[in-house]
Design goal:
Structural class: alpha/beta
Number of strands: 10
Strand order of the largest sheet: 9-8-4-1-2-3-10
Low-confidence stretches: 179-194
Shape: elongated
Number of helices: 3
Distance between the termini: 27 Å
Length: 194
């Protein structure tokens, strides 16, 4: 099962979302990376998440879209067995920069290998931020805004406990998080981010 809490990271902010039983994501609040009382605000968010029934604080990390690059490579209809090592060699062939410091996801379709690539440092910072504030990252994903990669990119499974990936690749829209505003009675601080 994918967690019901999610951090969506942008260049300047982190947005905490909660998913209701009907599948709709609500934004609980947003914090700026350099906010003076960041630790206090994160403590409040943690308490609110627990009040919503998310005591385990398992969290999905949605990495910044603008840091995901997409590429593809034609390798033919019968590529043979695609091992992780072989896939990495293909990625190295088409990348202008070194991919040794990158995390990536891939799929094969219609004779092409499709890649979504993000700097590992970006992902590690998101994990570190979440853990530092008491949340438990389970999965780091990205929603590439490219026709070359029309699926949810799974960059890292951090904790496989209760994480079911079976439908994740087929339904990226589930994680689009169009920032549905919380009812005023629930949170004075909620805001729409799109």
């Amino acid at each position: 099962m994918v967690p019901n809490l999610a951090f969506k990271f942008s260049y300047t902010m982190v947005h905490l979302f909660h998913r209701k039983k009907d599948g709709v994501w609500f934004m609980m609040d947003s914090v700026h990376h350099g906010e003076p009382d960041l630790h206090l605000k994160m403590e409040k968010l943690k308490r609110n998440a627990i009040k919503l029934g998310e005591a385990n604080l398992a969290t999905l990390l949605v990495l910044p879209t603008n840091e995901i690059s997409c590429r593809n490579m034609i390798i033919g209809q019968k590529p043979g067995r695609l091992t992780p090592k072989k896939v990495r060699r293909y990625l190295d062939q088409i990348s202008k920069e070194s991919t040794s410091d990158s995390s990536y996801d891939w799929f094969f379709e219609d004779g092409k290998l499709h890649f979504a690539v993000i700097p590992s440092k970006t992902m590690e910072k998101a994990i570190e931020f979440s853990e530092k504030h008491g949340f438990k990252p389970s999965l780091a994903i990205g929603i590439p805004q490219s026709k070359e990669y029309g699926k949810t990119a799974i960059f890292k499974v951090i904790s496989s406990k209760n994480v079911d990936l079976s439908d994740l690749k087929q339904s990226p829209s589930e994680f689009e998080m169009e920032a549905v505003k919380l009812p005023k009675s629930t949170s004075r601080d909620s805001q729409t981010i799109y």
